[in-house]
């Protein structure tokens, strides 16, 4: 099958287009003919080698963390899906590879595609929607009437997180550029901070949760907007010891993660708030709940641009500019 892969980690490197064998179909897997795959910042970070300590992949590696397509075969133990089903998924972190024509995914990580979305729209959803769900519902357990700051509201995670937070009855503030103010307002943001004009930490106060997807400067400034007992949850790092434990890492790696996050955890404690790092995990059950919200019109995808499969490298380059509104999608079939 045709695929785009990396042979070695290289910052800004080019993916190699090549033919490789179809993946092995395990007993609990569905084989998906890929119709569309979206590009995430995570793909560029894996390619650059930023996560090689956290995610020790064996190279060469086919990149790609989101998929929408048609089930063509199922493993012996599969009961939830059958050939012909239109599905979407975020494969488990150790089985990525959606920049290809086929992928085998554990049925536990798969959900039926929302019937009101195209394949391209569906492919834009899994990773970012699961991230938003796991931050707001699982980790933060936000309740109606609470206040949440979602950074980078026009990005992939931000566009979905704003909509999910509003569904949960939350007051939402977000940061974005001047050009994207109307977009984030249309998604439901109550307060919009134009980061080119204002400093969010001087405008906002007494927030219950901050979802951070930006760099260390923004992370530290976010502490100032939280009330005592608030939660700072970062999907961009630094990783912490709890993440290392969750990932099944040994004692030494746990200590490394503890040291990496020591500074922000200490500053959080001084302000009476908590810090945690979240690396989202594949979950077909949660994705099924997100499907219901999409089909009800509560959440809609935001797709910036479509690229044909052969222009996968151009799609990654566009994502790296940081100018994409919502998601960038590769159409495979």
Descriptors:
single chain, 333 residues, alpha/beta, Quinone Oxidoreductase, Chain A, domain 1, Rossmann fold, seven-stranded mixed sheet, six-stranded parallel sheet
Secondary-structure blueprint:
Blueprint: E1 2-6, E2 16-19, E3 29-39, H1 41-48, E4 61-62, E5 67-74, E6 86-89, E7 102-106, E8 110-112, H2 119-123, H3 126-139, E9 147-150, H4 156-167, E10 171-176, H5 181-186, E11 191-194, H6 200-203, E12 207-212, H7 216-222, E13 226-234, H8 241-246, H9 251-260, H10 262-270, E14 274-277, H11 284-295, E15 303-308, H12 312-320, E16 327-331
Parallel strand pairs: 9-10, 9-12, 10-11, 12-13, 13-14, 15-16
Antiparallel strand pairs: 1-2, 1-4, 3-5, 3-7, 3-16, 5-6, 6-8
Can you tell me about this structure?
It contains twelve helices and 16 strands. Helix content is 31%, strand content 26%. The two termini are 13 Å apart. It is globular and about 55 Å long. The strands form three sheets. Strands 3, 5, 6, 7, 8, 15 and 16 form a seven-stranded mixed sheet that branches. The chain has a six-stranded parallel sheet with strand order 11-10-9-12-13-14, sandwiched between helices. The chain folds into two domains: 2-124 and 301-331, Medium-chain alcohol dehydrogenases, catalytic domain (Quinone Oxidoreductase, Chain A, domain 1, Alpha-Beta Complex), CATH 3.90.180; 127-277, Rossmann fold (3-Layer(aba) Sandwich), CATH 3.40.50.720. The chain has 333 residues and is an alpha/beta fold.
């Amino acid at each position: 099958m045709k695929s785009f892969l990396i042979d070695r980690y290289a910052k800004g490197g080019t993916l190699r287009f090549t033919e490789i064998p179809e993946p092995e179909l395990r007993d609990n897997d569905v084989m998906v003919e890929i119709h569309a795959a979206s590009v995430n910042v995570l793909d560029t970070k894996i390619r650059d080698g930023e996560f090689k300590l956290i995610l020790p992949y064996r190279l060469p590696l086919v990149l790609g963390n989101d998929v929408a397509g048609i089930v063509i075969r199922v493993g012996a133990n599969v009961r939830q899906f059958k050939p012909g089903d239109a599905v979407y998924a975020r494969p488990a972190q150790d089985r990525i590879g959606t920049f290809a024509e086929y992928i085998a995914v554990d049925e536990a990580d798969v959900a039926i595609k929302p019937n009101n979305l195209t394949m391209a729209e569906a492919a834009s959803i899994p990773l970012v929607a699961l991230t938003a769900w796991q931050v707001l519902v699982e980790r933060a357990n936000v309740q109606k009437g609470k206040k949440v700051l979602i950074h980078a509201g026009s990005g992939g995670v931000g566009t979905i997180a704003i909509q999910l937070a509003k569904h949960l009855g939350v007051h939402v503030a977000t940061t974005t550029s001047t050009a994207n103010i109307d977009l984030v307002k249309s998604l439901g943001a109550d307060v919009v901070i134009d980061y080119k004009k204002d400093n969010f930490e001087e405008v906002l106060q007494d927030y219950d949760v901050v979802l951070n997807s930006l760099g260390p400067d923004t992370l530290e400034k976010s502490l100032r907007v939280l009330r005592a007992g608030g939660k700072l949850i970062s999907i961009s790092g630094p990783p912490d010891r709890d993440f290392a434990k969750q990932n099944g890492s040994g004692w030494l790696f746990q200590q490394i993660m503890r040291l990496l996050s020591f500074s922000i955890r200490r500053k959080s404690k001084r302000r009476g708030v908590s810090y945690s790092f979240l690396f989202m995990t594949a979950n077909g059950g949660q994705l099924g709940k997100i499907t219901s919200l999409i089909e009800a019109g509560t959440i809609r995808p935001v797709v910036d641009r479509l690229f044909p499969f052969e222009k996968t490298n151009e799609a990654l380059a566009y994502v790296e500019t940081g100018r994409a509104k919502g998601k960038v999608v590769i159409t495979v079939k």
